[in-house]
Amino acid sequence: MDTVKNTRATVTRRSRPPGLAVGFLVGLLTTMALVAVFYAADALVGTPFVPFDVLDWMARNLPGGLLTFGIDTVVNTIIALNLGETDVAAKVAEQIIGISGMIATGVIASIVFFYIKNQNDEDSGSPLPGVILGLVVGVPVALLSLSVNFTALTGPVISTAWIVLGFLVWGAAINWIYNDLAAIPPKADESDASAEKIDRRNFLIRVGGATATITVVGAGLGAILNNSEQPSITSVADSGAADSAAQPPANLPNSSAGVRPVPGTRPEFTPVSDHYRIDISSRPPVIDGATYSLPVSGLVDNPLSLSLDDLRNNYEPMTQYITLACISNRVGGDLISTQKWTGVSMQALLAEAGLQENARYLRIFGADSFDETVDIELINQDERIMLTYAWDDEPLPQRNGFPLRIYIPDRFGMKQPKWITEIEVVADYEDGYWVRRGWDKEAIMVTTSVIDVVAVDETHEEDGTTYVPIGGIAHAGDRSISKVEVKVDDGEWMEAQLRTPLSDKTWVIWRYEWPFADGSHTFAVRAVDGQGDPQIETARGVRPSGATGIFSVRETI
Ligand SMILES: Nc1nc2c(c(=O)[nH]1)N[C@H]1C(S)=C(S)[C@@H](COP(=O)(O)O)O[C@H]1N2
Ligand SMILES: [Mo]
Question: Can you give the pLDDT at residue 286?
């Protein structure tokens, strides 16, 4: 046995070692196969899908600025390429980044491995270097997955073992491929030099075929399983809400409002399934509502443990029409939606828990390791702050925070945790998840207005003039909207009509009848909030306090 190995080693030394380009190729092929196997196993039995964990770990641990830069780049690309809704496309893009990141890691590790093996010609073809490669990459990745993954169905031991095993096989395969490549016997004369090349090439083609088969079968299997599972996941989560989603509720509080939305304006009430979704994880947490209970602990006289039924039955329900927006929403962006929220006033909950004298803040934790801090003073002043359990009279959808999320008027979404698992009453302030990453501590909603449509199909005549209705929304947190004005080209700012909104916390639908003139025009809009403060006209990016600036659109009519 020893003799054989030595012979191979001797041969290896004399042969030209496989180049780093081959290391690249082998890394690419084997890592893609590994990703596919992880993907299929995830779909099959719910083991962690490593690339998403790596991404989620990066999201939580990279400096906030860097991460935001990454997200911004993705969102910019989506907007530039018109790839559809920002939230959906951003999630897909994040997942692609995660998968590419894992493949890049595997490729780099493989190149380094080829390099080290090439330097070290005493190597005997033993499996040990492959094991080392697998452990060096696999163990850190397994630990990282352990620290962020909360959606795997397998427990920590099996999950970790599975990831390490996957990387061990991957490392062993790279090592084996290297050794076989290096051992392909050199031929003495010139004409055979090309024969060697062909041998190696043939070998690589076989390796390529094998890994490609694993990749395609794994990815295909995973995709089929995931697709067939999708409906059951959403039906558990949305539990019937989807049915009512297509139609807005019949009895909206402003159904008698005189000013009608211009056709083409976004729906005044966002169907539940169309509500935007932004959160820090590749996959939203899944929480079992039947066994769920919410601990309210810390500086309280009566620590609480509240089931969903407790919240629904033992407290006065409170319903509010609310427009929620993400602080990352651009001027005119789609990360803003309007829903009917139902829950329990935080004032009632805190009264029941009995605050101790030094109680100042609530630390609120989400199942995805998200957290925020709410000032108790703010709650004392504002009974509208509520623990929300329903949207549109149905349990919260899974992706929007089932079973519980908080509502805080006038604040961007980043201040309002979803999937709440714990509320702790504390004495000292602590920055929340996005605040620690450089975003605004208060995150007060910025006054904004948008043109949704210049309705050239809806013209009407009056006294010989043709009017084109222009429509859109304006929003200012809970400050309501007192005025919207539209400007065409270099004309005057002209006042639009305001439709009675669903509530003083929702956006306002507006319309303006524009005396038609053909050609190419620029339409702009601006709003004033209910306190008389005009929206900020200076263009400013989303970070750290939300985007400002005038929305405008150019149209040729
Ligand atoms: N637990 C948790 N809560 C969260 C987040 C999150 O990532 N995790 N994201 C926040 C942000 S940034 C926004 S904009 C809103 C979005 O709520 P939605 O997805 O229901 O629209 O949730 C907030 N609450
Ligand atoms: Mo957000």
Answer: 92
**Given phi > 0 = left and psi -120 to 50 = alpha, else beta, which region is 135?**
alpha
| Ligand 1 in reach of 418 Cβ (< 6 A) | yes
pLDDT at 232 exceeding the cut of 70: no
Q: Is 368 in the pocket of ligand 1 (CB under 6 A)?
A: yes
Cβ(278) – ligand 1 distance below 6 Å: yes
In whole angstroms, what is the distance from residue 549 CA to residue 199 CA? 64
Q: Which residue ranges form the domains of the chain, and what is each CATH number?
A: 8-235 (no CATH), 272-434 (3.90.420.10), 448-556 (2.60.40.650)
Please state, in angstroms and rounded to a whole number, the distance separating the CA atoms of residues 463 and 458.
17
DSSP state string for 298-317: ESBSS-EEE-HHHHHHSS--
Q: Give the residue whose CA is nearest to atom 10 of ligand 1.
A: 414
Q: Looking at the CA of 327, name the nearest ligand.
A: 2
Distance CA 85, CA 326 (A): 14
The tokens for 505 are 């916390």
Q: Could you tell me the pTM of the whole model?
A: 0.82
Q: Is 27 in the pocket of ligand 1 (CB under 6 A)?
A: no
Confidence of residue 281 (pLDDT cuts 50, 70, 90): confident
User: What are 138's two structure tokens?
Assistant: 């696999």
Enter the DSSP assignment of 261.
P
The closest ligand to the CA of 418 turns out to be 1
Find, among 285, 290, 292, the residue nearest to 400 by Cα. 285
Task: Work out whether the CA dihedral 60, 546, 402, 366 comes out positive or negative.
Answer: positive
What DSSP string describes 482-530?
A: EEEEEEETTS--EEPEEPPPSSTTS-EEEEEEEE---SEEEEEEEEEET
Could you read off the pLDDT of 65-96 as tens digits, one per residue?
Answer: 676 677 677 777 777 887 778 888 778 778 88
